[in-house]
């Protein structure tokens, strides 16, 4: 096997196995940073040995074995961990491999629990939002710092610093490697879901750069959501989030034209939507609603997405139901952005004047002052009311506020078209 082939194989195996590897080691070492360092040692060993010896029959087990030996060595060397060595000493071996079967079982028998613990640690609210996102993609997605940096259009050093700070913060705060219970679990779960949806949204509508979409981030968020749904199948909002992402992801192929320009929802070719993802999303939504009749914010958003997913044409969209669902969402999770989306739904259900009335109220909200979608929505409603000169000014303002080049081009073109028709 060539060196390049071996390295590609190592990288592929790492992407699959690293979350389990780090999770198992973190439970033993009680330190996420140390666990990742040990896992990285195993990765380096594979990079060095596999080109010469060939890829082992079970590469994941090989990585785990190397990481476990490194863990044992570190425990033995570190006097600070002497007490821990005593606690798990029965599981350590003195044979040539340095690992007894009991120690193997200690890691592998709890792998699903370990993954769930790692999810809650990586998304812990003690971390900044940027730190949670970077650490989650690093530990649970197996992405390199370079891959994360390219996805978010920031220097690799910035991502590296965020990850280092996050690990230090977790260690300093003494965050336990465990699944929270009771009210704490509910509070912490909302942080986990927020991180996953932040990753998805950055892929679905990039905040900056030359591309409107970053499908890799959508795929990674979906994978994490599905893993979480498997780990805690009785949490309705987990299934609600998965449903929301599945249905939204179904539109990815239709969200851009051949030249990469954005295509708005009502203008999309629905024949290009992925109907398998829609079916999966509807099934996840049904599961969420069966678990809890009192729908949470992600389940409500999934129900809104389902209205679009079920409509064969834009004209068949049930805007009355969407407006009602947004009213419910505004009660459960009130925010200016929800109100802006509700205004769009009201305009489609009851006419542009109804939507504009609410949008005009939102122009006084400080949180939306720099939000480009507010003037964008207002411009669209003004076009429908025939107030084209005002609409052109709103589109220009929206274009100046967005940091995404593709979106800026679309908004500028709309501003030019509105002024041309005056």
Account of the 3D structure:
This protein has 20 helices and two strands. The chain has a two-stranded parallel ribbon. It has a domain at 3-109. The longest helix has 27 residues, at 3-29. It has helices at 3-29, 32-53, 59-77, 82-88, 101-108, 111-122, 129-139, 145-152, 156-173, 182-204, 215-231, 236-249, 275-291, 297-310, 319-332, 336-350, 352-362, 373-384, 388-401, 405-420, and strands at residues 208-209, 403-404. It is an all-alpha fold. The chain is elongated.
| Biggest sheet features | 2 strands, parallel
State the end-to-end distance: 67 Å
Q: From N to C, what is the helix and strand string?
A: HHHHHHHHHHEHHHHHHHHHEH
Question: In order across it, which strands form the biggest sheet?
Answer: 1-2
How many distinct helices?
20
Shape: elongated
Number of strands: 2
Q: Indicate the structural class.
A: mainly alpha
- In which range does the helix fraction lie? over 70%
Task: State which percent range the strand residues make up.
Answer: under 5%
Segments where pLDDT lies below 50 for 5+ residues?
92-103, 105-109
Which whole number gives the mean pLDDT? 87
Rg of Cα set: 25 Å
Domain RNA polymerase sigma-70 region: 19-78
Protein name: RNA polymerase sigma factor
Family: Belongs to the sigma-70 factor family. ECF subfamily.
Keywords: DNA-binding, Sigma factor, Transcription, Transcription regulation
